[in-house]
Design a protein that fits this description.
The structure is a single chain. With 437 residues, the protein is α+β, with helices and mostly antiparallel strands. The protein has two domains: 242 residues, no CATH class; 185 residues, no CATH class. Helices cover 25% and strands 18% of the residues. The protein has a four-stranded antiparallel sheet. It has a four-stranded antiparallel sheet with strand order 6-7-5-10. The protein has a two-stranded antiparallel ribbon with strand order 8-9. Keywords: Iron, Metal-binding, Oxidoreductase, Peroxidase.
Length: 437
C-alpha cells in the first residue's frame, strides 16, 4: 500500500480546473537556515492522504535541486545515490532534450539552470483565496529566517477560455496510480504500478528501482522535471492561416497537429468534425485508443498526443515504461482571438513532469518521441507543436488519395528554462532538517 501520509500531494494529484498556481525559487545561503526551512516545510506541505477531502485540490509542495541538497550538507555518499541525470542537472542535458538554438541554456531566463536554484516551492489551488492560504504557509515557513533568499517567482492562472495558450483544451490526461485512490482519465488504461511515480515500490518491470540512500531519504520521493515553455501563439496562428485553404481547414490542420480538436474532442472519436460536447465530457474525452487506426487516418501517428502517449500502439518498447504525470499551468496574458501579430508578451506553460525514472520517462519521451521520428518510421521529423523545429520541419498525415504534407515548420515552443528536482517524502524533509555536519 502507498504510504499516502508520507507522499507529497503534488506528486499524485491531478491539477484542478480551473486553477491558479505560483512557483517560487529559493537559494540557501546558510546551511542551518536551510535545515530549519526543511523542518518548517515538513508541517506546511500537503500530504497525498485523504484524496477526497474538501482541501485536496489545494497544495503546497517542495522540491530540491542537486545543488540544493549540497547546500543542505547531504553527505557525498548519499548524493552519489541519486539518478545521474538529476546530478547533472537539466542545463547540461540540453542537447539530449533538444534545447538548442533559441532554447539553449545560454538564453534561459535567470536564474533557471544555474547553481543558485536550490528549492522549488509550488502552490496550486482551484481559486485565489485558497492559493493565498497555501502561500501563507510558505511565508510562515520563511518568516524571520535569514540565510534563505527568494530569487524567482512565476504566477500562473487558467485562461478565460479554459484552454492553453495555443487554444486547445488542457489538463485532460492523467494516469491512474495503484494505491493512490485517484482514478485515471482513460478507462482503457490499467492503473500503473506505483513505482513508476514513487520511489520505494515495484514498477512496471516488476522490480524496485534504485533510490537515494538512506531509505528514509529516498522512499516516497520522486523526480520532477520543471520546464518554463514560451509559446509563440501568433506564429502558430500565422502558420495555420498561410498553410490552410479556409478557416475550416485551419481548424482541421490544428487538430491534426495536436491529435484533438480545440474543444478537447479527440480525433480518434470524431475525425471529421469537432464535437464540443464530447470535448467537455471528462468521462469520454480521453476514452479512446489507437489500435483501430494503425495508419493514422483519424489520428496521425506524428501528432502531438500520439507521440506523447502512444497508448496501445506497439512502438519503442513498452509504452507503460515511459508514462509520466504531466501537469501544466499557463502564464502570461492571453493573445486575443484572431490576433496574428506578436505583441511581445511572454506567455506559455509552466510544466512539471513527474516520474521515478528521469531517463526512461521524461528524457526518453523528449528525445525519442517529441524530437525524433524513427519510432514512427518518419526519420528525423519532430513533434509539429512541441518539437525543436527550425523552419525546415515537416508534418505529414495520411489522407486519401494521397497524404498531406506540411512544410517549413518553425519552432512554436521555446524553452525559457528548467530544473531537475527531487521531491522528497515528508519523513525525508525531517531527515534533512536533522542533518548534522
Amino acid at each position: 500500500m502507498l504510504e499516502l501520509d508520507d507522499i507529497q500531494s503534488g506528486v499524485l494529484r491531478p491539477r484542478p480546473s480551473p486553477y491558479v498556481a505560483t512557483y517560487i525559487l529559493l537559494r540557501i545561503d546558510d546551511r542551518s537556515a536551510g535545515r530549519e526551512l526543511m523542518r518548517r516545510l515538513g508541517s506546511a506541505v500537503t500530504a497525498a492522504a485523504h484524496p477526497n477531502s474538501p482541501t485536496s485540490n489545494c497544495s503546497l509542495s517542495v522540491a530540491l535541486t542537486y545543488h540544493g541538497l549540497e547546500a543542505l550538507g547531504v553527505p557525498r555518499d548519499s548524493l552519489d545515490t541519486f539518478a545521474w541525470e538529476f546530478r547533472q542537472g537539466m542545463a547540461p542535458r540540453a542537447k539530449a532534450l533538444g534545447d538548442d538554438g533559441e532554447s539553449s541554456p545560454e538564453h534561459w531566463e535567470p536564474p533557471l539552470g544555474t547553481s543558485d536554484v536550490h528549492v522549488v516551492l509550488t502552490a496550486l489551488s482551484p481559486d485565489q483565496v485558497q492559493l493565498e492560504a497555501a502561500l501563507e504557509r510558505a511565508r510562515n515557513a520563511l518568516s524571520e529566517l535569514g540565510g534563505i533568499t527568494a530569487i524567482w517567482r512565476q504566477d500562473c492562472h487558467a485562461l478565460s477560455t479554459g484552454k492553453e495558450p495555443f487554444g486547445f483544451k488542457d489538463g485532460i490526461s492523467h494516469p491512474a496510480v495503484e494505491g493512490s485512490g485517484i482514478p485515471g482519465s482513460n478507462p482503457h488504461e490499467e492503473p500503473l504500478k506505483a513505482g513508476e511515480f514513487v520511489l520505494g515500490y515495484p514498477d512496471e518491470t516488476g522490480g524496485v528501482s534504485p533510490m537515494p540512500q538512506p531509505d528514509v531519504l529516498g522512499r516516497n520521493g520522486t523526480y520532477v522535471a520543471f520546464r518554463k515553455l514560451h509559446q509563440r501563439v501568433a506564429a502558430f496562428r500565422q502558420y495555420l492561416k498561410n498553410t490552410a485553404s479556409s478557416p475550416e481547414d485551419e481548424g482541421l490542420l490544428a487538430a491534426k497537429m495536436m491529435g484533438r480538436w480545440r474543444s478537447g474532442a479527440p480525433l480518434a472519436l470524431c475525425p471529421r468534425h469537432d464535437a464540443p460536447d464530447l470535448g467537455a465530457d471528462s468521462s469520454r474525452n480521453n476514452d479512446f485508443h489507437f489500435a483501430d487506426d494503425p495508419t493514422g487516418y483519424k489520428t496521425p501517428p506524428a501528432s502531438h498526443v500520439r507521440r506523447a502517449n502512444p497508448r496501445d500502439a506497439s512502438v519503442a518498447g513498452v509504452v507503460r515504461l515511459h508514462r509520466m504525470i504531466r501537469r501544466g499551468t499557463a502564464y502570461g496574458p492571453e493573445l486575443p482571438e484572431g490576433v496574428l501579430e506578436d505583441d511581445g508578451a511572454d506567455r506559455g506553460l509552466m510544466f512539471a513532469f513527474i516520474g521515478a525514472h528521469l531517463g526512461r520517462q521524461f528524457e526518453f519521451v523528449q528525445s525519442e518521441w517529441v524530437n525524433g521520428g524513427d519510432f514512427l518510421g518518419l526519420g528525423d521529423a519532430k513533434d509539429p507543436l512541441a518539437g525543436a523545429n527550425d523552419g525546415t520541419g515537416v508534418f505529414s498525415f495520411p489522407k486519401r488519395p494521397i497524404p498531406r504534407r506540411l512544410q517549413g515548420l518553425p519552432r512554436f515552443v521555446v524553452t525559457r528554462g528548467g530544473e531537475y528536482c527531487f521531491m522528497p517524502g515528508l519523513r525525508a524533509l525531517r531527515w534533512l532538517a536533522e542533518l548534522r555536519t
